[in-house]
Amino acid sequence: MSLIENFLNLKSQIPENVSLIAxxxxxxxxxxxxxxNLGQRAFGENKVQELLVKKNQLPSxxxxxxxxxxxxxxxxxxxxxxxxxxxxxxxxxxxxxxxQAEKRNLKIKVLLQVKIAKEEEKYGFSKEEILKLNDEKYxxxxxxxxxxxxxxxxxxxxxxxxxxxxxxxxxxTIFEILKPNFEDFSTLSMGMSGDFALAIQNGxxxxxxxxxxxxx
Length: 216
Ligand SMILES: *Cc1c(COP(=O)(O)O)cnc(C)c1O
What we know:
Number of helices: 9
Strand content: 15-25%
Number of strands: 8
Strand order of the largest sheet: 7-6-5-4-3-2-1-8
Radius of gyration: 17 Å
Largest sheet: 8 strands, parallel
Helix content: 25-40%
Bound molecules: pyridoxal-5'-phosphate
């Protein structure tokens, strides 16, 4: 199938209330432009350097999502234009985003990344940690320049559908527990090429899909 067919076929499987982030990491500009020309505006990158290069080569109305681990010293490089940071995985990072956003008088939208996979995941808050912080109302009123929009998580890379379903469902549960403590908690970013259908069934509002679009 062509890129265009891949994209249209994918779009036909996504309900209207779920948004699609086209993950363009490692893809050439020409291919990304083809998807842009079909109307897609939200693109996701997992590395700051690659994001900066691509941003300069694509139209300015692209909405850039950072989906990979963000080092605190790189916050400055993306804060002026990034649409949503999916991968806020430490308190140090929240503090740095607050600090840089305040300096520039910006409000930055973020998702808190939670570890839901059974495999060793490097990044993200553990379930226990995020629930404890929530109990302590840690995020409430402390970060006036950070808008907590919701959560992001990645399921285990496995064929076991039951396990993936349980992991998504546990993230959805955490999302519902945290929601009352935030003003604008409405985004649950979960689901990739291999598991977006299960993610949507379990309450995802935003899927991040790369290879299903860009495979040829
Ligand atoms: C690469 C990546 C995706 C997309 O993965 P595909 O399997 O290619 O759809 C989604 N989320 C994150 C965080 C990624 O790094």
